[in-house]
Design goal:
The protein contains 25 helices and 4 strands. With 420 residues, the protein is mostly helical. The protein folds into 4 domains: 66 residues, no CATH class; 147 residues, Leucine-rich Repeat Variant; 70 residues, Leucine-rich Repeat Variant (Alpha Horseshoe), CATH 1.25.10; 88 residues, Leucine-rich Repeat Variant (Alpha Horseshoe), CATH 1.25.10. A 4-stranded antiparallel β-sheet has the order 2-1-3-4, with no helix packed on it. A hairpin with an 8-residue loop joins β1 and β2. It is elongated, with a radius of gyration of 32 Å. The N and C termini lie far apart (125 Å).
Length: 420
């Protein structure tokens, strides 16, 4: 080869510059607008053609980098162009002692961008394994929730979610900020974590998250990544603050007709927390509850019967058509379903004894129920029905039943029957 055939150093530099520029442009094209992109690097392809997006995540702690192979490696990019590799995202449980948490907190507060994000990543993984590891970070994390970087917020919410599952009282000061993340447009992982935090706080201090009820109801209507947890949160709030849940009755009623069985169980339980005190609000649920008496799931049957029992006092005419089904439920395999069936029959019998007359023999059998309140309901119903055939059993109950309330109900029933 002559000297003229050899590539010039200028040409080599130009090719190198082009490759560098092409590779740089390719990397920039894989920087996310927010959060992190997991990117595959094909080692067999030239710069400019080597990268392929694998997935996007808002929280760094939700990413696990796949192992490298002979032909592929993986990298994570953030919006600022920082790259995170296997060494950066190694399991902190193997590389970091929990005594280093103070240093992580300091880095979260004062570190440069990549260091701050890695500190959040490591703390998130530690708190997932040991929620107590995140306790001292709660004030700092709460401050980060008020910032403007959604990726930082996402990892902060993740850590707070882990802490809340064992120490909800420590996360309660962040409740107002967490509620702001309850929106259908939020990142699904962040939204699920925020719902979890609200549910955990509601278990110990429902008043701190009572303002979350409208947002949780909207999420149920739109669909969320954690419907079951949202239902749990609303139910816990409803038990302490039923007034706060009454306004979302239309959403709960609609949800009964749209959700799966497990979620319907929770929705019925929520309605049951205030249906007795606010029957006019829950009236529209009667047709759906009647249909659910035939559900396969025992809890769904039981909760539907309980709701109808609560509404029977105010709307006996609307609930009366379920009397035949309520009689059948006296033989249900579930004790709660049987108890709620006795409640329905007792309340309808008070308003319209003739409608419940076919239940006399099954109600006499119900006097042998293990659950005292079911026996008590059966006594009341038999009294309203003036069931003379029940007198002998009622006298026996009045004298021998171990429960004072049941003995009293039997005594009243006997008086009602003998006075007619």
């Amino acid at each position: 080869m002559t000297g003229n055939d050899e590539p010039s150093s200028d040409g080599m530099e130009e090719n190198s510059d082009r490759a560098f520029e092409s590779g740089h442009e390719e990397r920039e094209a894989h920087y996310p607008d927010a959060g992190y992109n997991l990117v595959e690097i094909n080692l067999m392809r030239p710069p400019g053609e080597a990268l392929a997006a694998v997935s996007h995540h808002l929280a760094l702690s939700s990413i696990t980098i796949p192992p490298a192979t002979e032909f592929e490696e993986y990298v994570v990019y953030d919006q600022y162009g920082h790259a995170y590799d296997h060494d950066d995202l190694q399991n902190p449980l193997e590389a970091v002692d929990t005594t280093d948490v103070d240093a992580m907190i300091d880095t979260i507060q004062t570190g440069e961008s990549k260091a701050q994000r890695l500190a959040l990543f490591r703390l998130a993984r530690l708190a997932e394994a040991d929620p107590s590891a995140g306790l001292t970070a709660v004030p700092v994390l709460t401050t980060e929730l008020q910032g403007s970087d959604p990726a930082i917020q996402a990892d902060a919410v993740t850590i707070l979610s882990s802490v809340a599952q064992e120490h909800p009282e420590e996360v309660t000061p962040a409740a107002a900020d967490i509620i702001e993340f309850l929106a259908s447009e939020a990142d699904p992982d962040v939204l699920a974590d925020a719902i979890t935090i609200v549910a955990e706080i509601a278990d110990s201090n429902p008043g701190a998250v009572v303002d979350a009820v409208p947002k949780l109801a909207a999420l149920l209507q739109d669909g969320s990544p954690a419907d079951a947890t949202a239902i749990t949160a609303i139910q816990r709030i409803a038990e302490a603050y039923p007034d706060a849940v009454v306004p979302i009755t239309p959403q709960l009623t609609a949800y009964l007709g749209e959700s799966d069985e497990s979620h319907r169980i929770g929705a019925l339980a929520i309605l049951g927390t205030f249906s007795k005190d606010y029957p006019n609000v829950a009236e529209d649920t009667i047709p759906t509850a009647i249909e659910l008496l035939d559900a396969d799931h025992y809890k769904l049957r039981a909760n539907a019967a309980g709701l109808l029992a609560d509404l029977a006092d105010a709307y006996p005419d609307q609930v009366e058509p379920v009397v035949p089904r309520a009689i059948e439920l006296l033989d249900d395999s579930d004790e709660k379903a049987r108890y709620n069936a006795t409640s329905i029959l007792a309340r309808i019998a008070k308003a319209d004894p003739d409608a419940v007359e076919p239940a006399i023999e099954p109600l006499i059998d119900a006097l042998d129920e293990d659950f005292a309140y079911a026996r008590s309901n059966a006594c009341w119903a038999l009294g309203y029905l003036a069931a003379e055939d029940a007198l002998e059993r009622l006298r026996d109950i009045e004298e021998t039943d171990p429960n004072e309330e049941v003995r009293h109900a039997a005594s009243v029933a006997i008086d009602e029957i003998e006075e007619r």
